[in-house]
User: Which sequence fits this backbone?
């Protein structure tokens, strides 16, 4: 995949199909990014957390994620979220005894404001050597 | 099963699941994976799943091969569970349905999709792209034509 290719966008009505669909798409893009297996697993875990927590913070009735992969890097942009939803989604990713899943697994984590909405951008990468 | 061509403009889509991907060969596999995940979640019979995946693969491949020529563009895939059926819409903003410059005659794509789906509707124009709407009964009684 070229670095400049436009992202793939997936929009799923908030409900029981978000998890199964999102984890599959994220897993595929993580593989396409040539992430090693442990980071691919991390990406799917982040997808599961987003699927479980994002419906409470979305601006409409759908969970929307834009995905872009490049060599050893996967970028997820979740939203539109309601104002305050970006940070709230991260806070909701905390698991007792484990910590905050998204914060622990993401290489970069940003909340971007755009108009009246927010977007949570999560990047997972792998800088090591095989 | 009905198949008809219409000239109405391609309308905006709203859906339960919508995928918008660059029209590139590798992204057809993404659509197939999503359909697989959806089929598992909805507990569709394997034969129905195979038919859906085959028909939608054909539709997406048509977009990749014919819709945009040398320019870039998107495939828009919408999946809507509706009662006893699953509706799948594959749309593009390319040059519409028509004879392909790189083939000598009509291919098997449309007849194949028509055979696999319980209904197929085609909309398209040279300026607004094309839109294939397929419907699949979740528990059909006739044998599947796809391979599992």
Assistant:
């Amino acid at each position: 995949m070229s670095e400049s290719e436009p992202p793939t966008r997936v929009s799923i009505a908030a409900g029981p199909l978000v998890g199964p669909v999102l984890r599959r798409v994220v897993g595929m893009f993580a593989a396409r990014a040539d992430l090693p297996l442990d980071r691919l697993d991390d990406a799917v875990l982040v997808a599961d957390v987003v699927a479980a927590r994002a419906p409470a913070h979305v601006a409409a009735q759908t969970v929307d994620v834009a995905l872009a992969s490049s060599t050893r890097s996967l970028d997820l942009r979740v939203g539109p979220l309601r104002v305050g939803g970006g940070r709230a989604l991260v806070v909701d990713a905390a698991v007792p005894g484990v910590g905050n899943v998204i914060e622990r697994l993401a290489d970069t984590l940003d909340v971007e404001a755009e108009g009246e909405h927010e977007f949570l951008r999560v990047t997972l990468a792998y800088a090591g050597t095989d | 099963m009905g198949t008809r061509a219409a000239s109405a403009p391609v309308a905006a889509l709203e859906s339960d699941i919508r995928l918008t991907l660059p029209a590139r060969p590798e992204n057809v596999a993404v659509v197939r994976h999503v359909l697989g995940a959806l089929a598992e979640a909805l507990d569709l019979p394997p034969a129905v799943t195979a038919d859906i995946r085959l028909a939608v693969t054909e539709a997406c491949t048509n977009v990749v091969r014919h819709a945009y020529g040398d320019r870039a563009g998107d495939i828009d895939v919408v999946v809507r569970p509706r009662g006893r059926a699953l509706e799948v819409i594959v749309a593009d903003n390319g040059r519409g349905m028509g004879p392909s410059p790189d083939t000598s005659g009509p291919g098997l794509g449309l007849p194949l999709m028509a055979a696999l789906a319980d209904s197929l509707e085609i909309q398209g124009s040279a300026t607004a792209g094309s839109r294939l709407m397929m419907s699949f009964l979740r528990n059909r009684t006739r044998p599947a034509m796809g391979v599992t």
Summary: The longest strand of chain A covers residues 62-70.
